[in-house]
Design a protein that fits this description.
The structure holds four protein chains of four kinds. By secondary structure, chain A is α+β, with helices and mostly antiparallel strands. Chain A folds into two domains: about 1-250 and about 495-520, D-Maltodextrin-Binding Protein, domain 2; about 260-490, Dipeptide-binding Protein, Domain 3 (Dipeptide-binding Protein, domain 3, Roll). Chain A has helices spanning about 1-20, 45-50, 100-110, 120-125, 220-230, 245, 275-285, 290-295, 335-345, 370-375, 375-390, 400-405, 430-435, 450-460, 465-485, and strands at about 25-30, 60, 65, 70-75, 80-85, 130-135, 140-145, 185-190, 195-200, 210-215, 235, 250-255, 260-265, 310, 345-350, 350-355, 360, 360-365, 390-395, 415-420, 485-490, 495-500, 500-505, 520. Chain A has a seven-stranded mixed sheet with strand order 8-9-10-1-11-22-12, with helices on both faces. The radius of gyration of chain A is 25 Å and the shape is globular. Chain B has helices spanning about 5-30, 35-40, 45, 50-55, 60-75, 90-120, 130-140, 140-155, 165-180, 185-200, 200-210, 215-250, 255-260, 265-300, 305-310. Chain B has one domain (about 5-30, about 80-310): MetI-like fold (Orthogonal Bundle). The radius of gyration of chain B is 24 Å and the shape is globular. Chain B is mainly alpha-helical. The two termini of chain C are about 15 Å apart. Chain C contains nine helices and no strands. By secondary structure, chain D is an alpha/beta fold. Chain D contains nine helices and eight strands. In chain D, α5 packs parallel to α7 (about 165-180) and α7 packs parallel to α8. The longest helix of chain D is centred in the last third of the chain and has 17 residues, at about 195-215. Chain D is globular, with a radius of gyration of 18 Å. The termini of chain D are far apart. Classes of the chains: A alpha+beta, B mainly alpha, C mainly alpha, D alpha/beta. Chains in contact: A-B, A-C, B-C, B-D. At the B-C interface, α1, α8, α12, α13 and α14 of B face α3, α4, α7, α8 and α9 of C.
Chain lengths: ~525, ~300, ~270, ~240
């Protein structure tokens, strides 16, 4: 072992010697698939694009207020159906071309163009109606209907009209996806093994770090060793088992990264015995969230500002839509659970529950990628239900299969699916719980369908004021906490690690690099 | 020795056909499978814009049209852009970087094989060492490979993908490829047995009595057999290169093929598979040509007497 | 006890272990708190991983993943080789040419490339080691057929059959006993056992790659653990000072057992 | 260099680790003469023949004796320093005498068809032999033709491979290769074996004649008393060595 240690240390030194000159390198979970904002499909994609592009509006990480770096002033028009934007002057694209209202309208039209096969664009087709330029610096964007939060809805990244030769049919394999042109703090270029970002001067951006490199981190432990050797300066996501080791080091800092995400166990409400609300409630009581959190994520009991806080509904506790009247269930309550199960007509014989003579057996699935954040959560959940007297088989599901089967409502043969939802700017949960048939509910995993829920979601859609929207979602929260299409688990912060030479590195929720201008590195 | 030219000609024929055949086979496989090609190549849920893709790849026109179109582009060096692995990056460019790396990797990994084989057939390497080579070869290449990769990542960190790092990756990769998966043991014993068998031939002993050397007599007669072995070994190495490049993150044909397969980037897979076909076609052609050369060399005679007359 | 019998015993033991393992494999490996990184003496027989799961479970599940497909491929190659040899004795010259052509084409591509392309093209619901193993067998077949028919022609091909007919043996007896059992056996068994080993190695390599790139493996369900997991654990111990050296040893041991199996099977079938 | 004695072997003793193969062998060969080396099989005829060519491939090998090539190197003893020098020494001796083999004396093997390199045409093999003449050959093709003709082979056989010739033709070809370098001595190792009586006679006569034509001595190794009586000018008998202590 001794000799190997030497090797590692030596490695660290060479690396330190090699990676100087203000250039910063960090490991992300994987390489981005694309740098074209319209085709972003993973958090990695979103993070890298945040450096290259300006979103029209974004939430400030300091005061959570809506801000824009490119819009100078704005006013609502047509009774709230449209918004008139006046752009800041002298903003330039990375290739030096001026940034104008034509670019805003081009982006809108590109998203509305059915020839642009982008899931993100599809999302905007329900929101936006069109865009008109009024001179070089004014654009008027019209909505499909009146929204209570119109500017929140304009969180898209602006694309350069000239880079697409004004052709609004934007296909993913255009070279733009690898060598994009934006107005963001950094110009990005995609290599086979990572992305190199280099600072670009602009009136609205002044990055203090001249160069930033993103590489794939591979094995989580390997990443930790690398940052300890100063072979790299940052890791986006540190796997729980290694967090203690990092926080023990003075030259390293663990930083909380709020992914605006909450975890759940979706229940197949179409399948017996889970079609019975009492059974679902019983399972909610059986689940010991405290134990899960402790064993899987490694949160010590009574640990303050833990990265993992329980939720009782489909929102994070910091969200305005979270209904604080609904209590969270932290510990299991077996008495209540068995009472409910007996009410539901299940019988417990020889320690196992059976319904209509047949022993109850659950097929559990979990999104594979979540295993690094919460190692073996699937096993622990399974064990808890097993201990309570249910048979179970567990499966890890690849991201591809998840997108292909689970999100499209084809996962009929599963009883439970452990997953998580992340939210960017708008916490719109409608497509998770809306009835699919209506064309909405595009991410309704087990095709959960309740008239009352649809009504509440509709109320939120129609809401013209924040309070109305809040009210609708509070009611939704309460209803779901009782009907339980999901067993709501927790909000889980990711932990990033950065060398302490990296200073004032504010990490924005979800988008990560929104405040990159303020980052400093004296390495 | 009747029709001595037949076998080499077959080889060269196959070599010429291979780069055409491989994409053809893949194409027909796609159409043979149930479901429409576009969504096999890239399920809509994964890619987005499957119909766009169908147009782009001329998948609507049936296998023949697709194949001819693809070939026509390929000949002009146009392979389109990567769809899912490196979205928007021209595949031709990727092949441009991958091919030299893979070839270099293979050539480097042939060095230990050739050296040790030569040594063993010259009798400088005792057969008692064989078990050692076999034991080394027992450890799967992936294990060595990942250890090497980790060392590089820890040592180079930010600069893990610079030219220098790549050189080291290639060297380590070649080393691993050369010794692991029984490559070395196979090569050593294989060549040795060839030479030993030839040495036992009576004419060698007599040649020595004529003051000639052993090698000058045996080597020409073994050339084609050796070429055959060399090709087999190289193919084995190419096969292993897929794993090694993936693990050591070397931008080679194998690595792009692997990533393409994982991400279902069909364009990339088709291109890289064809790339492999070209490489092994080159090997085949080399073997064929060498066989022809040897046959002609064997037939060399000072008196102007044509082969047919003599045969 | 002569060499062949010894080899046969070893071979049978290995096969037995493999089958036993695949039948007794647990459905899931449950973490045991307190047993993290337990060494073999602390958590017999093989110790435990970072979450206290017994490594025995890994070994058994790995066996279950490979056993079926590996034997399938082996049998397939064996059958094809036998067929090749018999047809040669049946005096079919054309077969030889066909096989040669087939070999040139199939043998011209690196196997791993073919396997990956197949993996890409097989629909997700069919994906698994089974399909890949069959294709591997097809890729390995030409060599086997070629050698079998070479042996057949060495013993005289059609003339051999005629000669024995003259001695009054029945065709089935000649083909099954004199040709297959007495002459082709060594070749067939060698190729079959080599294929078996190669398929196991293929599984390990593919799963290992999948682990390294944190992607699902083509070869088995995510809920299952391949022998590659053991090697991967071991790799972290090699480079990152994680106390899982015992996992590496076990992984290598299993790979070794497979190799021994293949070698001993071949040895036990060697002609007298 | 005026002496016309080609070989002068004195008191040679060759042994393996456990037994003596030949002992106290004396052998003189004069230019232009036919010397016969006879003895029962196992008496060490071939071994002796190989030894006088400097090829000793047994261990430890040379235990005693001296070897001179008076017509070539006067009084130099080629065994000097190699007695009991073991495997290494025998290898060095082999290298040192390489220039003589195939030039000063040549070898015509028995069972020629298996003794000719199957990967070279007869013409090519003769051509290689010609390169070992003292004076470089001007018109190789022509000379090859002549040599072939002198052993009674059709010049067209120059383009043929050994596998394309009959046993008799191979024997003639081997002889052609042996005489092509214009050696002082041709060593013929039981040239008659494997040939029917008629062919045997022709081959032997051819051998004798060709050697005479090319002015080379002939060392004939044989166990055929009749052959020897008919052809040899001088006979050397080898008796199996008694077991050494």
């Amino acid at each position: 072992m001794g000799r190997r240690r030497h090797l590692l240390i030596a490695g660290g030194l060479t690396a330190a010697a090699l990676s100087t000159g203000g250039s910063l390198t960090y490991y992300d979970e994987t390489l981005p698939t694309t740098l074209n904002p319209l085709y972003a499909s993973s958090m990695v994609d979103f993070r890298s694009q945040e450096l290259i592009f300006d979103r029209l509006w974004f939430n400030s990480s300091i005061n959570n207020e809506l801000e824009s770096r490119v819009v100078d002033s704005w006013e609502m028009a047509d009774g709230g159906r449209a918004i008139r934007l006046t752009l800041k002057s002298s903003i330039k694209w990375h290739d030096g071309k001026p940034f104008t209202s034509k670019d805003i309208c081009f982006t809108v039209q590109a998203m509305l163009d059915p020839g642009t096969p982008s899931p993100i664009a599809e999302g905007y087709r329900d929101i936006l109606a069109g865009c008109k330029t009024e001179g070089n610096s004014v654009a008027k964007v019209t909505f499909k209907k009146v929204f209570h939060n119109p500017r929140q809805r304009l969180g898209f990244a602006v694309l350069p009209r000239h880079a697409f030769r004004n052709n609004t049919r934007i296909s993913p394999d255009l070279e733009f996806s690898a060598r994009p042109i934006g107005t963001g703090a950094m110009k990005g270029s995609r290599g086979t093994r990572g992305v190199v970002f280099s600072a670009v001067e602009n009136p609205h951006h002044r990055a203090k770090i001249p160069q930033l490199q993103m590489q794939e981190g591979n094995d989580p432990l390997l990443q930790v060793r690398a940052i300890m050797n100063n072979a790299v300066q940052g890791i986006i996501a540190v796997s729980p088992p290694y967090r203690a080791e990092i926080s023990a080091r003075d030259e390293l800092a663990l930083k909380s990264y709020d992914l605006r995400s909450w975890w759940f166990i979706a229940l197949n409400t179409a399948k017996a015995p889970l079609n019975n609300a009492k059974v679902r409630q019983a399972l909610d009581y059986i689940l010991d969230r405290n134990e899960l959190r402790e064993k899987s994520i490694g949160v010590k009991p009574g640990e303050r500002n833990s990265p993992c806080e329980f939720i009782s509904g489909p929102f994070v506790q910091s969200s305005p839509y979270y209904n604080r009247q609904v209590p969270t269930k932290d510990r299991s309550d077996m008495a209540k659970a068995s009472a409910l199960l007996t009410e539901a007509g299940l019988k417990k014989t020889g320690g196992t529950w059976s319904s209509r003579g047949a022993a109850v057996n659950f097929r559990l699935g979990m999104l594979k990628s979540m295993n690094t954040e919460a190692p073996d959560l699937l096993e622990y959940v399974g064990n808890q239900f097993g201990a309570a007297g249910f048979g179970r088989q567990s499966f890890k599901i690849s991201t591809d299969e998840w997108n292909r089967e689970m999100l499209t409502g084809k996962a009929k043969n599963y009883d439970m699916l452990i997953g998580k939802w992340s939210f960017g700017q708008v916490e719109d949960v409608n497509d998770l719980f809306n009835t699919r048939k209506t064309g909405k509910g595009t991410r309704n995993i087990f095709n959960y369908s309740r008239a009352d829920v649809d009504k509440l979601l509709d109320n939120y859609d129609r809401a013209k004021t924040d309070t109305a929207a809040k009210d609708a979602y509070h009611k939704l929260h309460a209803y779901l906490a009782d009907d339980l299409p999901y067993l709501f688990l927790w909000k889980l912060d990711t932990k990033s690690a950065w060398r302490t030479e990296v200073k004032s590195n504010t990490i924005s929720p979800y988008f990560y690099f929104t405040e990159f201008d303020s980052w400093k590195y004296d390495g | 020795m009747k029709q001595w030219w037949l076998q080499p000609m077959v080889r060269i024929g196959v070599a010429l056909a291979l780069p055409l055949a491989v994409p053809l086979i893949i194409t027909y496989l796609i159409w043979a499978l149930p479901g429409d090609p576009a969504s096999i190549i890239c399920p809509p849920e994964l890619c987005g814009g499957t119909e766009e893709l169908a147009k782009r790849w001329n998948l609507d026109g049936g296998p023949y049209q697709f194949y001819t179109a693809w070939m026509a582009n390929a000949v002009t060096g146009e392979f389109g852009n990567s769809w899912r692995v490196l979205q928007g990056v021209p595949i031709a460019g990727l092949l441009g970087t991958a091919l030299p790396n893979t070839v270099m990797l293979i050539l480097l990994s042939l060095v230990p094989l050739v050296v040790f084989s030569a040594a063993s057939s010259a009798g400088w390497l005792s057969p008692r060492l064989d078990p050692l080579f076999q034991t080394i070869g027992l450890v799967p290449a992936v294990v060595y490979g990942l250890v090497a990769a980790a060392v590089i990542q820890l040592t180079f960190g930010a600069d893990a993908f610079t030219e220098d790092a790549l050189r080291i990756r290639l060297l380590l990769g070649a080393l691993v490829l050369g010794v692991a998966d029984g490559a070395l043991a196979g090569a050593v014993t294989g060549t040795r047995s060839l030479f030993d068998a030839e040495r036992k031939q009576r004419y060698v002993g007599v040649a020595i009595l004529r003051g000639e050397t052993e090698l000058s007599n045996t080597l020409p007669n073994l050339a084609s057999a050796l070429a055959g072995q060399l090709r087999a070994r190289t193919l084995h190495l190419l096969s292993g290169a897929v794993i090694i490049e993936a693990v050591l993150q070397i931008d080679g044909l194998g690595d792009f093929l692997w990533r393409g397969t994982l991400k279902q980037d069909f364009g990339l897979v088709l291109a890289t598979a064809t790339g492999f076909a070209v490489v092994s076609a080159a090997l085949l052609a080399f073997q064929g040509l060498l066989e022809i050369f040897v046959a002609l060399h064997v037939r060399r005679s000072p008196a102007q007497v044509s082969i047919e007359e003599a045969a | 006890m002569n060499k062949r019998r010894l080899a046969l015993t070893i071979a049978l033991t290995c096969v037995g272990l493999l089958l036993l393992g695949s039948f007794t494999a647990p459905e899931r490996l449950s973490p045991v708190s307190g047993a993290e990184y337990a060494l073999p003496m602390e958590a017999p027989p093989f110790g435990a991983d970072a979450r206290g799961r017994s490594l025995l479970g890994y070994a058994l599940q790995g066996a279950q993943i490979v056993a079926g497909p590996a034997f399938l491929a082996a049998v397939l190659v064996g059958l094809l080789a036998t067929l090749g040899g018999l047809l040669r004795c049946a005096g079919s010259e054309r077969l030889v040419t066909i096989v040669n052509g087939f070999r040139e084409v199939v043998g011209a591509l690196p196997r791993m490339v073919v396997i990956l392309v197949v993996a890409l093209l097989t629909p997700p619901e069919w994906r698994g080691l089974g399909v890949l193993a069959v294709f591997w067998a097809i890729l390995a077949a030409p060599g086997a057929i070629d050698e079998a028919s070479a042996v057949a022609s060495r013993i005289g091909g059609a003339n051999f059959v005629e000669a024995l007919r003259a001695h009054g043996f029945t065709r089935p007896r000649i083909y099954l006993y004199h040709i297959v059992a007495l002459n082709l056996r060594p070749v067939i068994v060698r190729h079959a056992s080599e294929t078996l080993m190669q398929v196991v190695f293929l599984e390990v390599a593919l799963s290992y790659l999948a682990l390294a790139s944190d992607e699902p493996s083509f070869t088995h369900l995510e809920s299952f653990h391949s022998w590659a997991d053991l090697l991967y654990m071991g790799y972290t111990s090699l480079i990152l000072d994680v106390p899982t050296m015992h996992a590496l040893l076990l992984g290598l041991g299993l790979v070794g057992v497979t190799a021994v199996l293949s070698v001993s099977v071949t040895a036990s079938a060697r002609a007298r | 260099m005026s002496s016309d004695r080609v070989i002068e072997l004195r008191g040679m003793c060759i042994r393996t680790k456990d037994r003596v193969l030949v002992r106290d062998v004396d052998l003189d060969v004069e230019a232009g003469e036919v010397t016969a080396l006879v003895g029962v099989s196992g008496a060490g005829k071939s071994l002796t023949a190989r030894c006088i060519m400097g090829v000793i491939d047994v261990e430890p090998g040379l235990a005693a004796g001296s070897l001179r090539y008076p017509a070539f190197s006067g009084d130099r003893d080629w065994f000097d320093g190699y007695v009991d020098s073991g495997r290494r020494g025998m290898k060095r001796l082999l290298r040192e005498t390489a220039t003589l083999r195939g030039a000063y004396f040549t070898y015509s093997p028995q069972g020629a068809s298996s003794a000719l390199n199957p990967g070279r045409t007869i013409g090519r093999q003769i051509e290689l032999a010609l390169t070992r003449r003292e004076q470089p050959v001007q018109d190789v093709a022509k000379t090859v033709g002549q040599v072939l003709h002198s052993v009674g082979l059709d010049p067209r056989t120059a383009g043929a491979l050994p596998s394309e010739l009959s046993g008799g033709q191979c024997q003639r070809a081997a002889l052609a290769i042996a005489v092509a370098p214009l050696p002082r001595l041709v060593i013929a190792d039981e040239p008659e074996t494997g040939l029917d009586p008629v062919l045997r006679r022709t081959v032997l006569e051819l051998l004798a004649r060709v050697c005479r034509d090319y002015g080379a001595g002939l060392l004939l190794i044989s166990h055929h008393e009749e052959t020897v009586r008919r052809m040899a000018d001088r006979v050397v008998r080898l008796t199996p060595a008694k077991e050494a202590a």
